[in-house]
Amino acid sequence: MEDRRAYDTDLTDAEWNRLEPLVPAPKPGGRPPKHTRREIVNGICYAIRSGGAWKLLPHDLPPWRTVYHYFWSWRRQGIWEHIHDTVREWVRQAAGRENQPSGAVLDSQSVRTSEQGGARGYDGAKRLCGRKRHLLVDTLGLVLLVMVTAAHVQDRDGARTLLSILATQFRRLRVIWADGAYAGTLPTWILGLRKWGKVRLEIVRKAKGQRGFAVVPWRWIVERTFAWLGRYRRLKSDYERLPETTEAIIHIAMIRLMVRRLAG
Length: 264
Description:
Mean pLDDT: 93
Order of helices and strands: HHHHEEEEHEHEHH
Helix content: 25-40%
Structural class: alpha/beta
Distance between the termini: 21 Å
Number of strands: 6
């Protein structure tokens, strides 16, 4: 970045100082790397925020094949998820919260897909063909769990797969708020996930007779998170062949947002 003008998507010095300890360092031995880790992360952030194809990265950033290689490799290794979860704990600590939440909000979002292929389906409620993003967020709006499926997967079915991990993780979690799409047998199923420290699902419904827009308690938190993700144009539609790639992009978008918050 020393030899070029900075882009708005570049990490500042304060942001990089926060993130650098979590980014894998170059392997010892062999020839020195041609591009710094910071510039590679800048290239990834540029692609995700701008929404352009990887091949359309500006020429003053590292070559697109290099940038994409590290994005793909770190996804396969689980690096993005690890960085995301670590930074989320830092943000919660900075806000005076415990590392793990006691309350969370559940919802899903359907988006259209491109001609790239991969898993897809038709969401009759939203009348679109594409994929569905299932999110569990804490009360700060930070992502706890994310899963991408074909759009025809029902919210309750997606929630069962997404929340099955609660049997062994997020042991402090006690209550999850969700809308009426998650009513039925799901609350009973969630109660049976653990023998101790049980989690209950509370359905938050609109006020009786409500017309037009109104803020619904708790549910607005996850809607705000979807709005945050919508700022990253790569997520306005789903251009990826693999749902796991979209999940990694969601993690990176949240990493970028949280690091910026930490750096002030």
